[in-house]
Amino acid sequence: MLRLASYNLHKCRGLAGPHAPERNLAVIRELRPDIIALQEVDFRLGTRPEALPRSLIERETGLVPADINGTGENSLGWHGQTILMRPDLAEAAVLRRLPLPGLEPRGAVALRLPELTVIGLHLGLTRSSRRAQLARVSAQAGRIGGDHIVMMGDFNEWRDDRGLEMLSGFRVVAPGPSYPAPLPRLKLDRFAISPGLEIIASGVGNGAQARDASDHLPIWADIGFA
């Protein structure tokens, strides 16, 4: 069993600032994930410097970031995304970047492990872009991911009955409302798991610190191999 999680950090600014990455790292530590996909880990402007300091991650969480060539020398992620994992998992991990179509620059990060491929997503703001992006990821997932695949991240989709049609071969799970963090109403953050995997338990990290650390709450799932 592995505990997977996803968390949109909102550049570690909470709802209105100030920049306080220690809060986000405390939320991640409380989740105790084996692997976590993160969104908005870098600032948007200039060389996109890291909003989540690389130097604090392992000390505060015991996890290490995937080796990604960022959009700038000081970036932590690619298109604002990265994946953290246990150090022993990192030894066998291979990461690929997946450019995605749409009106705004977007990309996914695919982490391949010996028995599992995890794809971190932060989809676009329009449904037409999200559909095109999921079509691209779904088409590539089978070629790079083998039999067991989990997509997870900020899908930016608030409907259960629209926009996710391209994931017909996956089981899509939203553990609960995750946005906005203080009074969550929308299920924007989701998992999509391939056949052969099962979700043993799942939930939303909704502690008091999580409600202050970002505009999204994190989601988690314990995944087993059927």
UniProtKB/TrEMBL annotation:
Domain spans labelled Endonuclease/exonuclease/phosphatase: 5-216
Key words of the record: Endonuclease, Hydrolase, Nuclease
The keyword Hydrolase belongs to this UniProt entry's keyword annotation: yes
One GO MF term attached to the UniProt entry: hydrolase activity
Keyword GTP-binding: no
Family matches, as InterPro entries: Endo/exonu/phosph_ase_sf, Endo/exonuclease/phosphatase
Name of the protein in its database record: Metal-dependent hydrolase, endonuclease/exonuclease/phosphatase family
Gene source species: Paracoccus saliphilus
